[in-house]
Structure formats: structure tokens, C-alpha cells
Amino acid sequence: MGIRSRVAQAIGNGTVCGEVAQGIDAADQALQIVAFTEGLALHTHIDPDGTSKPAVLAALDDQLGRVFTGTCRRAQLG
Asked: 3-state class of 47 per DSSP?
């Protein structure tokens, strides 16, 4: 299973438990997340001193937060 398939599966799982809104296209969002992450990785590889870890993590958190907008119902049970 490829990385995009795994991300799409995670998005699908998130839809089931409430982390992801209904109607989100998991394959499309997986492509966007993987492409975004690969871009971040490229920047950190090309310019490791000019790409701060906090900025990378904040950008990734923002990107994922656009898809995973809710709270998993399983977390609410505990």
C-alpha cells in the first residue's frame, strides 16, 4: 500500500470517528497532504538552516487541521 493510500485510509477512518467532516474526498485530500509534506521535506533538504523546525511543524499542523477538523468520538468515550 502506498503512502497516499495510507493517508486516504486515515482520512476515511477520521470520517467514521468524526475527526473529518462528511463529504470530504479522501483521495483528493491525501494527494494534497502528501504533496504538501513532500514539498516541506524538499525545502528542509535543500535549505536545512533556512527552514526552521517550528515553522515546518506549524505549516504541517495547519494543513492537517484543514482536513481533521473534529474530535474523534472514541476519544470522547475515554
From this structure: coil
For the stretch 20-73, pLDDT in tens is 999 999 999 999 999 999 999 999 999 999 989 999 999 999 999 999 999 988
CA dist 78 and 72 (Å) reads 11
The pTM of this model reads 0.86
Question: What residue type is assigned to position 76 of the chain?
Answer: Q
Residue 20: count of CB within 10 angstroms of its CB: 21
39-48 as b/e: b if 16+ CB within 10 A: ebeeebeeee
